[in-house]
Amino acid sequence: MHESGSELGYTVGENSSEYFQFVLKPGCAIRRWEYVEISYPDHSIVGRVERIASRSDLLKDNLGYEGVERYVKNDINEIVDICTGSTLGTVENGKLTKSRYLIRPGTLVKRAGVKILTEIFNPPEEGALNVGTLIGREDVRVSVNVNGLRRHLAIVAQTGAGKSHSAGVIMEELMKKGASVIVLDPHADYVLMRQGEGGRSYSPFIRIFRTPLSTGRYSRDNVGIVEDFTLRFSDLEPDEISDIMGIKENWTNLRKIVEDMHSSMKGLKDLEDFMMSTEKIPPEDRKKISARIRFIKKIKSIFSTRTTGLKDYVSPGQLSIMDLSGMDQYLANYFSFRVINEIMDAKVSYDYEYPVFIFIEEAHNFIPPGTNTKISQTIKRIASEGRKFGVFLVVITQRPGKIDQDVLSQCNSQIILRVTNPLDKKALMDSAESISDAIIEDLSSLETGEAILVGEFVRIPIIAKIRERETKEGGGDVDIASLLIRAREERDRNISIEGDRERVKNIFGG
Ligand SMILES: Nc1ncnc2c1ncn2[C@@H]1O[C@H](COP(=O)(O)OP(=O)(O)OP(=O)(O)O)[C@@H](O)[C@H]1O
Question: DSSP character for 460?
Fold first, then answer.
């Protein structure tokens, strides 16, 4: 790392309050996105290097190899390195404001110091969530402000770029602050969070719920205590029974039959009663509903003597992970709807005082554009009204182009990791004014774990390296090479066992 505060060069040519360019001091190395500082007696202007170019007026492209070699061998060096920077703002009395000062040619540019960068990117605020460090400046921590999550957060990137990792970091920080957090986890990416050295300190605050229908990507031995998310049949409305039976919302005939069966039931109304009630409906209806009845019988393990409720999964400082792995999407939708609808009801009626954060992994599967399912309606409602009641979304997706655009544009803060697909870039660009052309251009060149943070939770767009996780990750990339070594070893073991058997057979016969 280069010394902070060291001289880098002087401004040249035309400069403005937004952009400036400087000629680099010989021997100085600089990288794109590095932070620089122009100091005046009463304020400092902080900028970021956006472009680096090197120019020679002598070494023209028509010179030919020998010509260039002659200059180089005679040490004729008149190469000029020009850096173009954009101003991030002016720091005056420790406060960052938009820069309106003129930068004149011939002004000294220095590498930005730790102090000034820390003032900007990691201000000492109660609501600061520590998410990582500045790219190229591991000595400068970056935090985002929890109050900026008031208008929801989107975490967007192509697969493998670090969405779940980043979401886990935000969850850890929220737990430190005592937030109530719910995670809808269709691929069991978060169920190992209680494991590992760091995870153990969080484990008293993490509960994992799994419906008996979730296949569970990791066994209970790996995950530890997992609580069943169950339903008591008698707590269900006819509409919910239809949802569970996989009867679509517009299949009104079948829904009506379920309603008739439900209203013909007497007494306890458990699943057995419900199935018996097919006897009380006309034979043609019985025929129509028979396949769905067979289906609900197959999934009867989700029913129990108790419905898992709000008090189980919402509590101050608790992170509740809903492991939905292996479930059909419509059942995942039903359970997710149940959970977030109950949260919204409790918040609207002021039954739960504290803010609740709902993380939705693979959000494009819950709210694809143009759908009007109960889960999508509820998510849309939270996106537009949640902030009034203290319910905040963290929407995680690899397909910003394949998610309801209203919900995406209600997410006023965004963590964007590597994205290369042009359609997804366009969707991002359309979703927020704060995402400029320059940001979109940079998205393809981000490394795994590098992110652009934009919107209400930061003062200015930041390019950061998201910090290491303290809790254990699930669902990371598999190391194919080491797995193949194990596969070869197993194959060779099998071959040698076979060989031994063969030899024994030859010695003893048969
Ligand atoms: N900031 C980071 N620091 C270190 N490693 C990281 C970071 N971000 C991601 N990784 C690693 O990169 C791999 C992919 O990350 P992750 O699973 O979070 O990606 P993803 O975008 O959620 O992928 P998918 O869409 O497939 O779920 C993981 O092995 C993870 O540990």
Answer: S
Taking the C-alpha atoms of residue 472 and residue 492, their distance in angstroms, rounded to an integer, is 33
Residue nearest ligand 1's atom 12 by CA = 162
- Per domain, the residue ranges of the chain are 7-121, 140-229+309-466, 234-302, 483-510
Q: Quick check: CB of 165 below 6 Å from ligand 1? A: yes
Which of the residues in the chain have pLDDT under 50?
1
How far, in Å, from the CA of 466 to the mean position of ligand 1? 10
Burial class from Cβ neighbours inside 10 Å (0-12, 13-18, 19+) for residue 314 reads buried
The neighbour count for residue 200, using CB atoms within 10 Å, is: 13
The pLDDT value recorded for residue 248 is 85
What CATH code would you report for 140-229+309-466? Answer: 3.40.50.300
Question: Ligand 1 centre from 347 Cα, in Å?
Answer: 33
127 in Cβ contact with 147 (< 8 Å):
yes
pLDDT given for residue 475 in this prediction = 65
Residue 268 has what pLDDT? 61
Q: Check: CB of residue 211 under 8 Å from CB of residue 302.
A: yes
Q: Which alpha helices (DSSP H) does 396-461 contain, by range?
A: 405-410, 422-431, 437-442
State if residue 397 touches ligand 1 by the CB under 6 angstroms criterion: no
Ligand 1 geometric centre to CA of 162 (Å): 3
Which residue minimizes the CA distance to atom 7 of ligand 1? 449
Residue 113 beta carbon below 6 angstroms from any ligand 1 atom: no
pLDDT at residue 383 in the model: 96
Which residues have CB under 8 Å from 255's CB, separation 6+? 238, 239, 242, 247, 249
Q: Distance, CA 141 to ligand 1 centroid (Å)?
A: 20
DSSP codes joined into one string, 179-240: -EEEEEETT-SSTTTT-HHHHHHHGGGEEEEE-TT---SS-HHHH---EE--B-GGG--HHH
Query: Count of CB atoms within 10 A of residue 233's CB?
Result: 22
159 DSSP assignment? T
The alpha carbon of 485 and the centre of ligand 1 are apart by a number of angstroms equal to 23
CA–CA separation, 186 and 214 (whole Å) = 9
In angstroms, what is the span from residue 66 Cα to ligand 1's centroid? 49
Q: Give every CB contact of residue 322 below 8 A, 6+ residues apart in sequence.
A: 182, 183, 184, 185, 209, 210, 229, 313, 335, 336, 339
Interface confidence (ipTM) of the complex: 0.97
The residue nearest atom 2 of ligand 1, judged by CA position, is 449
Instruction: Indicate which residue's Cα is closest to atom 29 of ligand 1.
Output: 476
CA distances to 215, 249, 259, 292, 306 from 241, rounded to whole Å, are: 22, 12, 9, 11, 16
DSSP one-letter code for 291:
H
- Quick one: pLDDT at residue 125? 83
Atom of ligand 1 nearest to the CA of 132: 1
